[in-house]
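Notes to self, Dienelactone hydrolase:
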Amino acid sequence: MKVEFDLECGVPVRGCLGIPDGEFKGLILLGHGMASTPERCFDDADNDYMNALGKSLCRDGYVVWCPYIVQIGDQASQNNIAAMLASHGVSAHNVSCASIDAGEIVCRKLTGASGLNVGAYGVSWGAFLVLHLEAATGRMRPTVVSGYMRDEKKLLMSSVISRNLGVELATYIHFSSSRARYTGAELAYLICPCPLFVEIGSRDGGNTVELGRDEKFAEMQSVYASSDHLHAIDMAIFDGVHEASGERARPWLYQHLESPAYQTTSRLKNAIAL
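result:
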């Protein structure tokens, strides 16, 4: 089902709501990557790095909300749109996070279902967004991060950039309000003890050991361990490239959404936030 509405700031949101047959097991907020669209997340015939993840989640009994991230398929467009929004005092990063977060309202209004346990699954750029969404809201929604775990400074200093200085970067992330700092330990301090699962392809060139993949994850693990929540964070390296897998991540997410502990931890985090 295609959905359109405006955020309070006036920016229009377009997305797809996947509604499963039968009883709803929960709601999953899906953030797609820059080279994809919500429609492609539900299309088996469209072979992109989302691997029809939205359709798989929906087939497993979950309502899936996937909004269109503000861009037109490349980082140049994302930078330009971010600049246009900034000229009106609107943050493109916040718009993208708010579009994903709106899934609970969209689901309630269009299906009548409320009180569903909610998880988040972000792929590539969408992974960065769901991490920051949790940091901003503190909702303690079990979160899967696919295709993002690196040190941004190491990326900027790597041959990926130095051998191709004309490559477009999401510069508003690197230079606006220092959002790129919120990875690793800095981010973990904000989201812990939110259940977190990271999946990275073994041949994902943007998230290699050399670019700080294992180092950044170890930083996050250390923060979780210091508060006795090491069990709440995990990472899997699967045989693949820069793409969504779900082989271990989907069972992990379903287990956390169906766990009786979901409501307890959600209420606890909300109580602290208030």
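- The beta strands are 2-6, 12-18, 26-31, 62-67, 118-123, 143-146, 196-201, 233-238.
- The first strand starts at residue 2 and ends at 6.
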